[in-house]
Amino acid sequence: MEFIIILLVVGAIILSSMVKILNEWDRGVILRLGKAVDVRGPGLIILIPFVERMIKVDTRTIAMDVKPQDVITKDNVSMQVNAVVYFKVISPMEAITKIEDFYFATSQLSQTTLRSVMGQYPLDDVLEHRDKINGALQGILDKHTEAWGIKVTMVEVKQIDLPKEMQRAMAREAEAERERRAKVISADGELQRAEKLAQASTTLSSSPSALQLAYLQTLTEIAGDKTNTVIFPLPLDLVKPFIELERKN
Fold first, then answer.
1. pLDDT over threshold 70, residue 226
2. Could you state, in order of their start, the residue ranges of all structural domains in the chain?
3. What are phi and psi of 24, to 5 degrees?
4. What is the CATH T-level fold of the domain 62-165, as seen in this structure?
5. Is the pLDDT of residue 234 over 90?
6. How far is CA 18 from CA 15, 58, 61, 213, in A?
């Protein structure tokens, strides 16, 4: 009886080592006596006991956070930058046989590449042209990880931490820029106002009756406020016809 129990236990152990089930996103790299011979999966996998073993590889896209890196830009500004790298295994055989730990290797390569690429740009370009930097990072990483069976699909610079002194300087610069724009807009408004007044005066000077009407309209607007006392000056042009008539008589 004990012998049968031992056989059952041994059989269960052998069966568990023979039969493997892989999910849809998993692939198994088969090693036969230490030699990589095949990639299997997904689904049911049958292994030769004591001869074959399997290393499982996840082929889904991995989002890897790159630790904050100390970076000095091209114009000597110190800052900390971190990023997110999206990659996936496209060749499980190479990911297992060409590199010891593809995740750790991709992480280290991402950190060094981030420092190197960010140091090639001045601060203004880092802040304004982030898409360009993301593309440069993705291209470099994808080129180096291709030999490992890794495809880097996207890189995003996530956060840029500037020193407090630089933040204050940028705030002063932004405030000065807003003041400059306000003064320019005000000056443009005064220029347009002066041009319109010049056009209006030219039009009024060509028509004395229009000038008189504008004069009377101005008096009407002033008289609307009962708290003011209006001294009505009588233009000579209004009484000139009467003076000439009186002289003729």
1. no
2. 13-58, 62-165
3. -60, -35
4. Tetrahydropterin Synthase; Chain A (3.30.479)
5. no
6. 5, 20, 29, 107
